[in-house]
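Let us work through a complete example step by step.
Step 1: write down the sequence.
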Amino acid sequence: MKIAQLHQLFIQCNKVSTDTRKIENNSMFFALKGENFNGNTFAKQALQNGAKYVIIDEEAYHISDATILVEDVLKTLQQLASYHRNYLKVKIIALTGSNGKTTTKELINAALSQKYKTVATIGNLNNHIGVPLTLLSMNSTTEIGIVEMGANHLKEIEFLCNIAQPDYGYITNFGKAHLEGFGSIAGVIKGKTELYNYLTKNNKHIFLNADDPIQIEKLSSYIKKVGFSQTNKEFYKIKLLEANPFLSLKVEDYTISSNLIGAYNFTNLCAATIIAKYFDVALKDIKIGIENYIPQNNRSQIMTIKNNKIILDAYNANPTSMQAALTNFSNLKDENKMVILGDMFELGNEAKTEHQNIARLTTDLGFNKIFLIGENFFTSETILEKVKKYKSFEDFKNNFEQPKKATILIKGSRGMALERTLDLL
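Step 2: predict the structure and record it as tokens.
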């Protein structure tokens, strides 16, 4: 079946599904395959659970006209998403970067949705499956789509751009993330700037942090760019007012007081502001959107448990984000500071060095108590007795002592699941 024909069936459906446990009536189910599962085997169940059509790529699971046989289910999903994107002719903003992608995406959505009907990537569904699902969640009422793109190796952002065909783009930053796949920081820069390459090649608009020398260098001669800066008068000026602990900034005559902590979130707020302004959202409405945004999903969340103030930033971590979080934490005026850090993953040959650097930084910044959890931190060298190292979370859990009136930073890679610490507190 041709993609145009499949699309005619798709627009008869309410949504796309890839999980029979969450399927809805009148949906289109794509029988994707993984290392440990074969979605084709769930074709019959998908129909029983309410799917209108099921897309399969193994003839043995063909049941009726409701099961549509294609050569490759994943490729068909991606092709359908691209076709649907062009069918709608919706404006697409793409964003990538080493840190802050999801927070920035949420802030952009919060600001733009004050004026437009928007659809944004749910959570961090930002890969070769998540991007197509985001595009297919848009409909004729969608005015602007905000698509997050993640990558852990070269050519991945390029591939996602060819699917989503963005009209606008923004890169949050370039940091030491996914070094195992990219090989080096130079590889990270090359991989992330695939978004720039797509946009410049197609004469599209770019948003940038004009205080980032890498972005300025890459886009020095490109005309269709809109940026923000604290110092460069050629770009839109936004001033950081305070970050203790919550961020506030000055934009023209408006003060925007956010629910975000950490000076590292300043550029994320700036990006949302200039992008919304570019689309003619009034500053008073941008202020409303940003001030109403409350971080969730273990991202820079502040909470109080038994007289302890917790900064939960346990969604993910890499050397760049870890350094930023620790430096910001050290600048807070609170006393009796405690850090609970988990291993950073996907660092390849740099893992030992980068964990050693973070271990040293924690001691240099002089926190009252330091807990390092995971294989990589366990083997790192430290110089202060107050640093406690545990090979696993279970070891940490078995030796945990309830703190009293402490301010606690919890941060680690997703696989460490350090939000479990909340149960201990």
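Step 3: interpret the result. The chain has three domains: 3-71, 90-291, 301-424.
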